[in-house]
Design goal:
Elements (H helix, E strand, L loop, with lengths): L1 H5 L10 H43 L1
Length: 60
């Protein structure tokens, strides 16, 4: 008998406005994280290049 009560909950086919806002917010957050990851990866590469240069100049 309890299974009949649960079957009524599956009528929400389109997301609610709150869910749309949450999805949009998460997409912005993911985009920001991707930009930060690109920036940090660039900084790490630059730091590695600087270390390699300083090692080469100290070996001369």
């Amino acid at each position: 008998m309890r299974r009949q009560k649960n079957s009524k909950k599956k009528t929400a086919s389109r997301p609610s406005p709150n869910r749309k806002m949450l999805i949009a917010y998460l997409q912005y957050a993911v985009d920001d994280i991707a930009v930060l990851n690109d920036t940090s990866a660039t900084l790490v590469k630059a730091a590695i290049d600087n270390l390699k240069r300083s090692q080469q100049s100290s070996q001369r």
